[in-house]
Design a protein that fits this description.
This protein is α/β, with parallel strands linked by helices. Helices cover about 40% and strands about 20% of the residues. The chain contains seven helices and seven strands, in the order E-E-E-E-H-H-H-E-H-E-H-H-E-H. The chain has helices at about 50, 70-80, 85-105, 115-125, 145-170, 175-180, 195-200, and strands at about 1-5, 5-10, 15-20, 40-45, 105-115, 130-135, 180-190. Strands 4-5-6-7 form a four-stranded parallel beta sheet. It has a three-stranded antiparallel beta sheet with strand order 1-2-3, with no helix packed on it. A hairpin with a 2-residue loop joins strand 1 (about 1-5) and strand 2 (about 5-10). Helix 3 packs parallel to helix 4.
Protein backbone atom coordinates (compact mmCIF):
# COMPACT_ATOMS: atom_id res chain seq x y z
CA UNK A 1 0.00 0.00 0.00
CA UNK A 2 1.39 3.39 -1.01
CA UNK A 3 0.76 6.46 1.12
CA UNK A 4 2.64 9.73 1.46
CA UNK A 5 5.40 8.54 -0.88
CA UNK A 6 5.97 5.40 1.15
CA UNK A 7 5.31 1.77 0.48
CA UNK A 8 5.21 -1.28 2.73
CA UNK A 9 7.36 -4.32 2.09
CA UNK A 10 5.36 -7.45 3.01
CA UNK A 11 7.10 -10.63 4.13
CA UNK A 12 5.89 -14.18 3.23
CA UNK A 13 3.87 -14.33 6.47
CA UNK A 14 1.79 -11.37 5.33
CA UNK A 15 3.29 -8.98 7.88
CA UNK A 16 4.69 -5.52 7.19
CA UNK A 17 8.45 -6.00 7.19
CA UNK A 18 9.43 -2.38 6.59
CA UNK A 19 8.27 0.98 5.28
CA UNK A 20 10.35 2.34 2.42
CA UNK A 21 10.48 6.01 1.55
CA UNK A 22 11.71 5.59 -2.03
CA UNK A 23 9.12 5.70 -4.80
CA UNK A 24 8.40 2.13 -5.93
CA UNK A 25 8.96 1.41 -9.60
CA UNK A 26 5.99 -0.56 -11.03
CA UNK A 27 8.35 -2.25 -13.49
CA UNK A 28 9.81 -4.14 -10.53
CA UNK A 29 6.50 -5.99 -10.12
CA UNK A 30 5.04 -6.49 -13.61
CA UNK A 31 2.33 -8.89 -12.37
CA UNK A 32 1.48 -7.08 -9.14
CA UNK A 33 -1.67 -5.05 -8.54
CA UNK A 34 -1.61 -2.43 -5.76
CA UNK A 35 -5.28 -1.63 -5.04
CA UNK A 36 -6.40 0.69 -2.27
CA UNK A 37 -7.28 -1.04 0.97
CA UNK A 38 -10.90 -1.93 1.68
CA UNK A 39 -12.88 -0.18 4.44
CA UNK A 40 -15.18 -2.00 6.86
CA UNK A 41 -17.55 0.70 8.10
CA UNK A 42 -19.38 -1.34 10.77
CA UNK A 43 -17.89 -4.24 12.65
CA UNK A 44 -17.94 -5.70 16.18
CA UNK A 45 -14.47 -7.18 16.48
CA UNK A 46 -15.00 -8.46 20.01
CA UNK A 47 -17.56 -10.83 18.45
CA UNK A 48 -15.11 -12.27 15.94
CA UNK A 49 -15.79 -15.89 17.06
CA UNK A 50 -19.37 -15.51 15.80
CA UNK A 51 -17.95 -15.88 12.31
CA UNK A 52 -15.42 -18.60 13.12
CA UNK A 53 -17.58 -20.81 15.36
CA UNK A 54 -20.90 -20.79 13.52
CA UNK A 55 -21.50 -24.44 14.36
CA UNK A 56 -22.15 -23.40 17.97
CA UNK A 57 -25.39 -21.73 16.91
CA UNK A 58 -28.63 -23.68 16.35
CA UNK A 59 -28.72 -25.33 12.93
CA UNK A 60 -31.50 -23.15 11.53
CA UNK A 61 -30.30 -19.84 12.98
CA UNK A 62 -28.21 -18.94 9.91
CA UNK A 63 -31.29 -18.57 7.67
CA UNK A 64 -33.17 -16.18 9.96
CA UNK A 65 -34.68 -13.05 8.43
CA UNK A 66 -37.15 -10.37 9.40
CA UNK A 67 -38.63 -10.88 12.87
CA UNK A 68 -36.23 -13.79 13.43
CA UNK A 69 -33.40 -11.24 13.65
CA UNK A 70 -34.25 -10.75 17.33
CA UNK A 71 -33.81 -14.48 17.95
CA UNK A 72 -30.46 -14.49 16.19
CA UNK A 73 -29.29 -11.47 18.18
CA UNK A 74 -30.28 -13.06 21.50
CA UNK A 75 -28.37 -16.22 20.56
CA UNK A 76 -25.25 -14.23 19.73
CA UNK A 77 -25.40 -12.13 22.90
CA UNK A 78 -25.95 -15.16 25.12
CA UNK A 79 -23.05 -17.03 23.55
CA UNK A 80 -20.81 -13.98 23.79
CA UNK A 81 -21.57 -13.75 27.51
CA UNK A 82 -20.11 -17.25 27.95
CA UNK A 83 -16.76 -16.26 26.46
CA UNK A 84 -13.96 -15.15 28.82
CA UNK A 85 -14.52 -11.50 29.74
CA UNK A 86 -11.01 -10.56 30.85
CA UNK A 87 -9.33 -7.60 29.10
CA UNK A 88 -6.77 -10.00 27.62
CA UNK A 89 -9.48 -12.24 26.15
CA UNK A 90 -11.26 -9.25 24.61
CA UNK A 91 -7.96 -7.99 23.22
CA UNK A 92 -7.24 -11.37 21.65
CA UNK A 93 -10.69 -11.64 20.04
CA UNK A 94 -10.32 -8.16 18.57
CA UNK A 95 -6.78 -8.90 17.43
CA UNK A 96 -7.95 -12.06 15.65
CA UNK A 97 -10.66 -10.11 13.85
CA UNK A 98 -8.17 -7.47 12.74
CA UNK A 99 -5.84 -10.18 11.41
CA UNK A 100 -8.70 -11.70 9.42
CA UNK A 101 -9.60 -8.32 7.95
CA UNK A 102 -6.04 -7.50 7.00
CA UNK A 103 -5.72 -10.89 5.29
CA UNK A 104 -8.81 -10.11 3.21
CA UNK A 105 -7.58 -6.69 2.11
CA UNK A 106 -9.25 -4.46 4.72
CA UNK A 107 -6.95 -1.69 5.94
CA UNK A 108 -9.41 0.63 7.71
CA UNK A 109 -12.21 -0.25 10.14
CA UNK A 110 -14.95 1.34 12.20
CA UNK A 111 -15.12 -0.97 15.20
CA UNK A 112 -18.26 -0.66 17.29
CA UNK A 113 -17.55 -1.61 20.89
CA UNK A 114 -17.47 -0.73 24.55
CA UNK A 115 -14.39 -2.27 26.14
CA UNK A 116 -11.02 -0.55 26.31
CA UNK A 117 -9.09 -3.68 25.33
CA UNK A 118 -10.49 -3.56 21.79
CA UNK A 119 -9.21 0.00 21.40
CA UNK A 120 -5.72 -1.12 22.42
CA UNK A 121 -5.83 -3.96 19.89
CA UNK A 122 -6.69 -1.50 17.12
CA UNK A 123 -3.84 0.75 18.21
CA UNK A 124 -1.38 -2.15 18.12
CA UNK A 125 -2.57 -3.47 14.77
CA UNK A 126 -0.93 -0.93 12.50
CA UNK A 127 -4.27 -0.42 10.74
CA UNK A 128 -6.22 2.79 10.40
CA UNK A 129 -9.61 2.97 12.03
CA UNK A 130 -12.16 4.45 14.33
CA UNK A 131 -13.26 2.93 17.60
CA UNK A 132 -16.88 3.99 18.08
CA UNK A 133 -18.25 3.69 21.60
CA UNK A 134 -21.64 1.98 21.43
CA UNK A 135 -24.33 2.87 23.93
CA UNK A 136 -27.91 2.02 24.76
CA UNK A 137 -30.63 3.81 26.74
CA UNK A 138 -34.39 3.24 26.81
CA UNK A 139 -36.43 5.61 24.61
CA UNK A 140 -38.23 7.41 27.43
CA UNK A 141 -39.85 10.87 27.49
CA UNK A 142 -37.58 13.75 28.58
CA UNK A 143 -37.14 14.02 32.37
CA UNK A 144 -39.91 16.04 33.96
CA UNK A 145 -37.93 17.20 37.00
CA UNK A 146 -34.34 18.10 37.81
CA UNK A 147 -34.10 15.11 40.14
CA UNK A 148 -35.25 12.76 37.38
CA UNK A 149 -32.81 14.38 34.96
CA UNK A 150 -29.91 13.89 37.38
CA UNK A 151 -30.88 10.28 38.03
CA UNK A 152 -31.16 9.40 34.36
CA UNK A 153 -28.00 11.29 33.49
CA UNK A 154 -26.06 9.40 36.15
CA UNK A 155 -27.41 6.07 34.97
CA UNK A 156 -27.04 6.44 31.20
CA UNK A 157 -25.07 9.54 30.22
CA UNK A 158 -22.25 9.67 32.76
CA UNK A 159 -20.89 6.15 32.04
CA UNK A 160 -20.72 6.98 28.32
CA UNK A 161 -18.91 10.27 28.92
CA UNK A 162 -16.46 8.70 31.37
CA UNK A 163 -15.68 5.80 29.05
CA UNK A 164 -15.11 8.16 26.12
CA UNK A 165 -12.81 10.44 28.14
CA UNK A 166 -10.84 7.40 29.32
CA UNK A 167 -10.33 6.40 25.69
CA UNK A 168 -9.19 9.95 24.87
CA UNK A 169 -6.68 9.89 27.72
CA UNK A 170 -5.30 6.55 26.54
CA UNK A 171 -4.97 7.74 22.95
CA UNK A 172 -3.19 10.92 24.05
CA UNK A 173 -0.47 8.81 25.70
CA UNK A 174 0.28 6.85 22.53
CA UNK A 175 2.92 7.49 19.91
CA UNK A 176 2.14 9.98 17.17
CA UNK A 177 1.78 7.17 14.63
CA UNK A 178 -1.06 5.62 16.67
CA UNK A 179 -2.77 8.98 17.18
CA UNK A 180 -2.58 9.53 13.43
CA UNK A 181 -4.16 6.17 12.59
CA UNK A 182 -6.83 5.79 15.29
CA UNK A 183 -9.88 7.99 15.83
CA UNK A 184 -12.60 7.91 18.47
CA UNK A 185 -16.32 8.12 17.85
CA UNK A 186 -19.74 7.55 19.39
CA UNK A 187 -22.26 5.01 18.14
CA UNK A 188 -25.84 5.19 19.45
CA UNK A 189 -27.21 1.69 18.90
CA UNK A 190 -30.45 2.54 17.08
CA UNK A 191 -33.21 5.20 17.23
CA UNK A 192 -35.44 2.65 18.99
CA UNK A 193 -32.86 1.59 21.60
CA UNK A 194 -31.46 5.01 22.57
CA UNK A 195 -33.83 7.72 23.79
CA UNK A 196 -33.74 11.17 22.19
CA UNK A 197 -32.88 12.88 25.48
CA UNK A 198 -29.77 10.71 25.95
CA UNK A 199 -28.68 11.36 22.35
CA UNK A 200 -28.88 15.10 23.03
CA UNK A 201 -26.98 14.91 26.31
CA UNK A 202 -24.16 12.79 24.89
Amino acid sequence: PIRLNQYAAINPEGQIASLESANPNPSHWPLTLLPPGLINTHTHLELTPVGTQRADLPEDIHQTTGHDMARWLVEVIQRGARWPQTPQAKYERTHEGLCQMRASGVTCVNDIGWHHASLEALGDSGMRGRRSLEFFAPPEPPPATEAEQNARGGKYVQPIVERFHAAEEWLNTQEASVQHRVELGLSPHTPYSVGTWVWQQV
